[in-house]
Design brief:
2 helices, DUF2905 domain-containing protein, two-stranded antiparallel ribbon, alpha+beta, DUF2905, transmembrane, transmembrane helix, elongated, 14% strand
Length: 70
């Protein structure tokens, strides 16, 4: 029962992120200064390093707060 709730919660978060992505892109999220973009003939490579670090820090803070208050 516990695993199913976790998976449903993660799925809902992914759907929410997908719905909010156009708004987040307009705010500059996903194209931060530390992100790497390489474009050449027939190749486009995007490595969102700074975005990944920011998301990791935000999620760590949220999970810490949930764990502390529960």
């Amino acid at each position: 029962m516990e695993v199913s709730r976790i998976l449903i919660g993660q799925g809902l978060l992914l759907v929410l992120a997908g719905l909010l992505w156009p708004v987040l892109e307009k705010l500059g999220f996903g194209r931060m200064p530390g992100d790497i973009l390489i474009q050449r003939d027939g190749l486009s490579l995007y490595m969102p390093l700074a975005t990944s670090i920011l998301v990791s820090q935000i999620l760590s803070l949220v999970l810490w707060a949930i764990n502390r208050w529960s």
